[in-house]
Specification:
The chain is α+β, with helices and mostly antiparallel strands. The chain has nine helices and eleven strands. The chain has helices at about 15-25, 30-40, 80-90, 105-115, 135, 160-170, 180-185, 240-255, 270-280, and strands spanning about 45-50, 55-60, 65-70, 95-100, 120-130, 150, 195-200, 205-215, 225-230, 260-265, 280-295. Helix 1 (about 15-25) runs antiparallel to helix 2 (about 30-40). The longest helix is centred in the C-terminal third of the chain and has 15 residues, at about 240-255. It is globular.
C-alpha cells in the first residue's frame, strides 16, 4: 500500500489487524503510551501502515509542542515512515519529536540521523534470574526503619504515590510531572494488579513504592515480571529503602512463578545502576531516545 494520508482507521482487514497487533504487543517497539493511543487515537494522532509494519505519531499530552513517535516496521520502511511523520507534525504546528528506538544498532542510528534525529538519552533494560542470590537479598543497605511499613496499594494511596513519583523524577521527560489522570490511565490497563504494587509508608504518608508489571511468555521472549516504576521520596534517601522495595518486589514476582525479573533504567543513573547490579541485574538491551525538531509548515 503506498504511503499517503494517515490511516487512523482502515477498511483493509490486513491493515486493521496490523494496527490491532501493534497496540497489543507488549514486547514490540511501541511503549505503553503509544500503544494506548494507537488503539484510541487522539485528535492529532496519525498512523501509517505498510505491508510489514507501521508508524504512529501523537502529541505528548503534557507538552503541547512535543510529539511521541513509534515505529514498528522493518528498517527499509523507516525512511518513508519518518518523512510522513515529520510532514504531519509540520502541518500541525511543528514541535519536538521523541522516538524511542528499542535495541538501537548503528544502522538504525544512521537512518535516524539522515532524517534529522539526534541521540538525546539512553536507557538499559536490565534482567535478573529469580530467586535472587542469597548475597543479594542480604546485601549492604538492605535495612528498613521500624517507622516504615511495607504493604500493597490501596485506592487512598494515589496522591501519595504521585507526590513521591514527581519528587523522585523531577525533570524527567517521561516519568516526571504525572497527574492523577496519567496515573489512572495506567491503572485502567488490563495488566494492573494492586497486589503487585508495593507501598512503603509511615503512619502519615507514602515514602516510596515499587509498581510491578507482569509479561506472559511470547514466541519471542520469556515470561517475566518487571519493576515498572520504583521511587523513593528524596527526603527518605539514605535508609536503604530503594533496595528494600526492589527486593520485596522481586520476591513477590518469584512467588508468582516468574523466573526472570526486569526493569528499565536511564543509562546515566549511576546510583540506580550500582544498586541493580548489586542485586545481580545485567544489561539485556539498550534503547535510545532520538529527538528531532520539526518546524511548522508555512
Amino acid at each position: 500500500m503506498p504511503l499517503g494520508a494517515p490511516r487512523l482507521a482502515s477498511t483493509d482487514d490486513a491493515d486493521a489487524i496490523r494496527i490491532a497487533d501493534a497496540a497489543a504487543d507488549e514486547d514490540g517497539p511501541l511503549n505503553d503510551v503509544l500503544r494506548a493511543d494507537l488503539a484510541r487515537p487522539g485528535a492529532d494522532s496519525a498512523t501509517w501502515v505498510t505491508p510489514d509494519g507501521l508508524a504512529h505519531v501523537q502529541r505528548d499530552a503534557r507538552h503541547d509542542a512535543s510529539w511521541l513517535l513509534g515505529v514498528a516496521a522493518s528498517r527499509p520502511a523507516w525512511p518513508a515512515l519518518l518523512e510522513r511523520a515529520a510532514a504531519h507534525v509540520a502541518d500541525h504546528g511543528g514541535g519536538t519529536v521523541t522516538w524511542w528506538c528499542a535495541g538501537a544498532h548503528d544502522d538504525d542510528l544512521a537512518i535516524a540521523t539522515a532524517h534529522g534525529y539526534a541521540v538525546a538519552r539512553q536507557q538499559h533494560e536490565l534482567r535478573v534470574a529469580l530467586p535472587l542470590a542469597p548475597a543479594a537479598e542480604s546485601g549492604t543497605g538492605h535495612r528498613r526503619s521500624s517507622e516504615v511499613e511495607l504493604r500493597t496499594f490501596e485506592s487512598g494511596d494515589i496522591e501519595g504515590v504521585l507526590a513521591v513519583n514527581n519528587a523522585a523524577f523531577a525533570g524527567h521527560h517521561e516519568q516526571g510531572g504525572w497527574t492523577r489522570s496519567t496515573f489512572e490511565a495506567r491503572m485502567a490497563q488490563p495488566w494492573f494488579d494492586p497486589s503487585l504494587f508495593v507501598i512503603a509508608a509511615t503512619a502519615t504518608r507514602v515514602v516510596g513504592f515499587n509498581w510491578l508489571k507482569t509479561h506472559p511468555a511470547t514466541a519471542n521472549d520469556v515470561a517475566r515480571g518487571e519493576i515498572y516504576v520504583i521511587a523513593v521520596d528524596p527526603a527518605a534517601h539514605g535508609r536503604g529503602l530503594g533496595r528494600t522495595l526492589a527486593v520485596r518486589g522481586l520476591d513477590l514476582l518469584h512467588a508468582r512463578g516468574f523466573a526472570w525479573g526486569s526493569l528499565f533504567v536511564a543509562a546515566d543513573n549511576t546510583a540506580a545502576l550500582a544498586l541493580y547490579q548489586s542485586l545481580g541485574f545485567a544489561t539485556h538491551r539498550t534503547d535510545v531516545a532520538l529527538v528531532a525538531h520539526v518546524p511548522a509548515a508555512r
